[in-house]
Amino acid sequence: MAAGTNLIPFPDPVRARSSSAESTGTPFEAGKKKGPEFTTFVQDLAFRTTLPGGQGGTTGPRLTQEELYPARQAFSLAHLTALRLLKLAVGRSQRALSAAANGEIVEADTEIQKLQVLLPELFCCRILGDGFGTVVNATICAFEFLSGDTPSIEQIRTFNRVFQFLREKPFLGTDEADSQVELLEAAQLNPYPAELTDFLSSDESLR
Amino acid sequence: MWDKSGQLWKSIQEKWQDLVPVYVEPRKTDFQVGNNRLQVELEQARVISVDPERSLEHFARDARDFIKLTTDHLHISVYKRVGFRLVYFKEFKSRADAAAAVFSLKLLRLPDGKRFEVEEPPVDPMYSLRWESEKKGVFVNVRAEVRKFDVEPSPEAARLMSAVHSETSGVVFDVDYYTVAPVETGQMDVAEWIKHAVHVIARDSKYVFEA
Residue B36 needs a FRET pair 20 to 30 A away by CA distance; which of A24, A112, B11, B186 works? Predict the structure, then answer.
């Protein structure tokens, strides 16, 4: 049985409450809704390391985004949009992967183009966190680096992994984001802006 | 945690400058800011708010900022458990009235007449339910309770304040919504999660009282 979320009352004097203490036949009358008296938010922290490649070190059942955030009406617009676009991105990269594996390069390319047009809107959801913005920006740069060429099967697989990771962890920190950027690099993609690469390789950067 | 507490609370103080220490030792640190209490101890961080605003927006924002700072400074990668507890209190004139109010909800069956050689009806009734899967859980508790509060000032303080003795009867509705499966930090935005928790609690609490 799980431990209760501990609630430790303030030691200060109890504040007087305005309340209708009249006892009537129906003690819980309808009327103005009352706010909570106490609210507690608690997190039990675990000091665990993250496995290489950004995969979490947890075992056993895991909560998905849908299970953690189950109420559609309670979503922020950015979170809801990001999850919707990431679901599309995962599906399109998966279809591109299947098509490429079957030698249907035109179909794979079509799916990749459809995927690519999602990215600017996804970048608009970067209010979710710096890690999110870093990863989306890196994928945009990686596609720009391809200059319209169809990515290889390995590169499509990497995109698919990155989008799946982002869908599960949209609030990732910058360290985890860096590990995703490294995955893109490892797949012979350039996840950095072309201007930055040019600047770093020019004499100007040495001054 | 021992060597990080100073840095952590310095960052927290940069955000909330009127932070007041309540209890400080290496394995447990507890500060107050406004009507919020911020606590960090071994394996646990907690935010408690008394009489928060009804929408809980400020509370959710404060909890997010506090947990973010704690997570970053203590290098947390996994939350073993995330919990959100709401406690509502309605005051009644007497202990008997509060008990009658709980019985009027018809959640409990009250035996008629004199029982266990006591003529008076039962007091301080309590009704609780727990739903729990391998991933999430919720604990709901409805009870009548009497809260006693006694403050006896020291002889020095007695010149400035008088003793306080108060007794309040009322009905408590207490909901604890929590995760059972571990949550990775990249999955969690505290403010967003609290909004969902509040929505789920508001949506489903009414079914507790439909019995």
Answer: B186
pTM above 0.90, yes or no: no
Task: Name the domain boundary from B76, B95, B126.
Answer: B76
Q: Which residues of A touch B73 (CB under 8 A)?
A: none
**H or E element in which residue B90 lies:** strand B78-92
My answer on whether B50 and B127 are in the same domain is no
Residues 99-158 of B with CB under 8 A from A: 100-101, 104-105, 130, 132, 134-137, 139, 147, 149, 151
Choose the final residue of a domain: B55, B76, B97: B76
Give pLDDT tens digits for A114-162.
999 999 999 999 999 999 999 999 999 999 989 888 899 999 999 999 9
Do A5 and B176 contact (CB within 8 A), yes or no?
A: yes
Q: Within this chain, do residues B143 and B200 fall inside the same structural domain, yes or no?
A: yes
ipTM, two decimals, is 0.87
